[in-house]
Design a protein that fits this description.
By secondary structure, the chain is an alpha/beta fold. Helices cover about 40% and strands about 15% of the residues. It has a 5-stranded parallel sheet with strand order 2-1-3-6-7. Helix 18 (about 440-445) packs across helix 19 (about 450-465).
Length: about 475
C-alpha cells in the first residue's frame, strides 16, 4: 500500500484524525475545501481515490461527480456524510460515486477501500483487500487464537453472532473482523450503541422515521438497518435495549423487514446482525430483563472474549504495539520497557482491559521522555511527581498581579524530558477530539472519562483561548 496518494474534500476537522495512521502506512493525503482545489490537486498528484463530504458552503458533491464523469482519468469518489439518507445514497451512486459512507471515517475502512496500485483505477473493478489487511487483532495466547479461529470459520455465513466480554476487551474490533472476513466485506458496516439513546430515539435510529412521525421529525430519515442493507449491523450493548424494542428487533431478525416510525410501508432489508454485551445476558433472561426468544435468535454463534489479565504475554505484545504507535504519532524516539515495568504489566489486574492498556501506554510514552519506560509512568502518584523548577519559586502576594494562565504549546511540551501533567492531559483530550471530529461522546469513551468531565475540560481550554474541535 506504500506510496499511495488520496484526497479528502472536506472540512479539516472531519478527517485530520486519520492523518497519523495514513503517515504510518506511507499514504500521502491531500485536503481541499472546494471543487476547484480538488480538480487542481487531482491534476497535479493523480490520487488513487477521492473522499468527498456531501456538501460544504459553496460546494455540492454532485458537481464533483459530474466532473469525474466527464474526465475519464478522474479517480473513484466515495461520498461521506454526517447524516445518512437512503435517497441520497441511491442518487449519489447513480451519479457515479463508488460508495456512500457515514461519518466518522474509520481508518480500517479507509484502508480497505484503497486499491492495490496507485493512480486512477481501471474500468475493471479492483479486488478489495482481504480482512487481514483491515482489522489487525494482536494475540498469541491460546484462548485468543481459539476465538479467532471460530470467528474466521463462521464469518462467511449470515448467522447472527453474540460477542460477549468485559468492557474494553475489543468486542467491536472482533465485529469488524467478522464483517471483513465475510462475503459482505464490500458492503456497509453500521454500528449503533444501544445504551447511548433512550427507547424512542433508538427506535428511530434503528428503523428510521417518516416526516411528521414525532415532534422534530422534519423530514424522512432512513434507519441504520436500511443503511446497512447488503452489509452488517453491529448492535453494541444489546442487553441495554428496552423490552418493547426487543420485540420489534426480533421481527426484523425473523422476517428481514422493517417499518419506519410513523410509516405505512414495509421495507425489506438484507442485513447480517452482530451484537455485543458486557453483561451476563443469560442472567438478564432469567430476570425477565431480556427476551429469551431474542437471545436465542442472536446467540446462534457465541463468541466470548477473554479479559486481558488472562492473556499472559499478550499483555506485553499489546503494550509494545501501543507504545510503537504513540511514539510514531508524537514523533518521539523508540522506547523500551524496564524489567520492572514489564513485570508490572504482567502483574496488574487490568480492570479496563485493552482500552485501559492503550490509554496507559499513551500516558507512558508522553511521560517517559527519552526512556526507558518505568512503573511510575503507568499509574501516576501525583504527590511523588517532580515539580518543574519554576514552580519552586515563592508564590506572589495577594496584591501582586496574577499572571494569565496559558497552555504549553504541543511542540514545547514534547521537546523536553518532563511535562506538566495538565499538558499531558490536554494533549490527550484534544487529540481524541480531533480523531472523533469533535464527537464528545466518542472522545470521552476513548479517554475513559465521563462526558460531563470532558465538557468541563473543554470549557477550561476555551477560557485559555485554545481552539477546541
Amino acid at each position: 500500500m506504500s506510496g499511495k496518494t488520496i484526497l479528502f474534500l472536506s472540512k479539516p476537522q472531519s478527517v485530520t484524525g486519520l492523518f497519523p495512521s495514513l503517515r504510518e502506512a506511507d499514504i500521502t493525503a491531500g485536503l481541499a475545501e472546494n471543487l476547484g482545489g480538488a480538480i487542481d490537486f487531482v491534476a497535479k498528484n493523480s490520487p488513487c481515490l477521492v473522499f468527498s463530504v456531501d456538501q460544504l458552503p459553496g460546494y455540492k458533491a454532485e458537481d464533483l461527480l459530474a466532473h469525474a464523469t466527464r474526465d475519464n482519468g478522474f479517480p473513484p469518489v466515495i461520498i461521506f456524510t454526517e447524516r445518512g439518507c437512503a435517497t441520497d445514497a441511491k442518487r449519489f451512486l447513480e451519479l457515479g460515486a463508488r460508495d456512500y459512507w457515514l461519518e466518522p471515517l474509520m481508518w480500517d475502512k479507509v484502508r480497505a477501500a484503497l486499491p492495490r496500485t496507485n493512480g486512477p483505477e481501471p474500468s475493471k473493478p479492483t479486488p478489495q483487500p482481504t480482512a487481514s489487511d483491515g482489522v489487525t487483532i494482536i494475540g498469541q495466547h491460546p484462548v485468543v487464537r481459539r476465538v479467532l479461529a471460530l470467528a474466521a470459520q463462521v464469518a462467511p455465513s449470515k448467522a447472527s453472532v453474540l460477542i460477549s466480554g468485559e468492557s474494553g476487551t475489543g468486542k467491536e474490533m472482533f465485529a469488524r473482523y467478522l464483517h471483513q472476513k465475510s462475503r459482505r466485506a464490500n458492503g456497509p458496516f453500521v454500528a449503533i450503541n444501544c445504551a447511548a439513546l433512550p427507547e424512542h430515539l433508538l427506535e428511530s435510529e434503528l428503523f428510521g422515521h417518516e416526516k411528521g412521525a414525532f415532534t422534530g421529525a422534519i423530514s424522512r430519515k432512513p434507519g441504520r438497518f436500511e443503511l446497512a442493507d447488503g452489509g452488517t449491523i453491529l448492535l453494541d450493548e444489546i442487553s441495554e435495549m428496552d423490552l418493547g424494542l426487543q420485540a420489534k428487533l426480533l421481527r426484523v431478525l425473523q422476517e428481514g423487514e422493517i417499518d419506519r416510525v410513523g410509516g405505512t410501508e414495509t421495507i425489506k432489508v438484507d442485513v447480517r446482525v452482530l451484537a455485543t454485551t458486557n453483561r451476563d445476558i443469560e442472567e438478564s433472561v432469567r430476570n425477565k430483563e431480556f427476551r429469551q426468544d431474542l437471545y436465542f435468535r442472536l446467540n446462534v454463534i457465541p463468541l466470548r472474549l477473554p479479559p486481558l489479565r488472562s492473556r499472559g504475554d499478550d499483555i506485553v505484545r499489546l503494550a509494545r504495539f501501543f507504545v510503537d504507535h504513540y511514539t510514531t504519532e508524537y514523533a518521539l524516539p523508540h522506547l523500551e520497557f524496564s524489567d520492572s515495568a514489564r513485570q508490572w504489566l504482567l502483574d496488574y489486574d487490568w480492570p479496563g482491559n485493552v482500552r485501559e492498556l492503550q490509554n496507559l501506554m499513551e500516558r507512558a510514552v508522553l511521560l517517559a521522555g527519552n526512556g526507558p519506560i518505568e512503573e511510575r509512568h503507568f499509574l501516576l502518584d501525583l504527590d511523588a511527581w517532580p515539580l518543574p523548577e519554576d514552580d519552586a519559586a515563592p508564590m506572589q502576594t495577594a496584591d501582586a498581579a496574577a499572571p494569565t494562565e496559558t497552555a504549553m504549546p504541543l511542540e514545547s511540551a514534547l521537546s523536553g524530558n518532563e511535562m506538566r501533567l495538565e499538558d499531558i492531559e490536554r494533549i490527550a483530550i484534544l487529540k481524541r477530539l480531533e480523531q472523533t471530529s469533535g464527537n464528545r461522546t466518542q472522545a470521552a469513551e476513548l479517554l475513559g472519562i465521563s462526558v460531563r468531565t470532558l465538557r468541563n475540560k473543554i470549557s477550561e481550554y476555551k477560557k485559555l483561548g485554545l481552539d477546541v474541535p
